[in-house]
Amino acid sequence: MKIQVITLFPEMFDKVLNTSMLWKAQDKKLVEYEVVNLRDFGLGPRKTVDDTPYGGGDGMVLKPEPLFAAVEHAKKSDKSAKVLLMTPRGKTFVQSDARRFAKVNKGIIIVCGHYEGYDERITSIVDEELSVGDYVLTGGELPAMVVADAVTRLIPGVLGGENSALEESFSDKDEKEYPHYTRPEEFRGLKVPDILLSGNHAEIVAWRRSQQK
Description:
The protein is an alpha/beta fold. It has a single domain, classed as SPOUT methyltransferase, trefoil knot domain (Alpha/beta knot, 3-Layer(aba) Sandwich). Helix content is 29%, strand content 20%. The protein has seven helices and ten strands. It has a five-stranded parallel beta sheet, sandwiched between helices. β5, α4 and β6 form a beta-alpha-beta unit. It is elongated and about 70 Å long.
């Protein structure tokens, strides 16, 4: 699977994409990342990517020409990739979306908005508009990292345990994951629930289910 990110700040992604499970996914050749610098597609000698909005108002708006050119560049290496636009007004990204993107065996191109916003015409070549919550961030870079991480870890072979992804929070009917405990049995007066020490697997399963509400 190929995950491409279009951003004005490619340097933000270096550590994230080369750490932990995201690095492991690359090392095992299960996923390929490419960070596309939107500035490379800017106009004129100053590589301009933004302009003032029609109708007035504060802030700057990303111009359509660089955005279209960057998406078209990304599409050249992955024609079937879905184009995702990170925007506060998009549909809230949830675990079922991550599963869906990980299963389709198609790449994704994540467009990071910035400044006051983007020229609305970019939505004509976008497949889905996504948000990571009802709040506004400086840009779409952090949300893009969230999507890349959530999708990558669900690609078969990335996580160590065969059932790890299936037993996590929100993986079964969007239920939360049950609590986990490890040694020692007691720490600073806090004890592991007796049921987990009982050896009764049926009762342990029932207890864990009861904790997923």
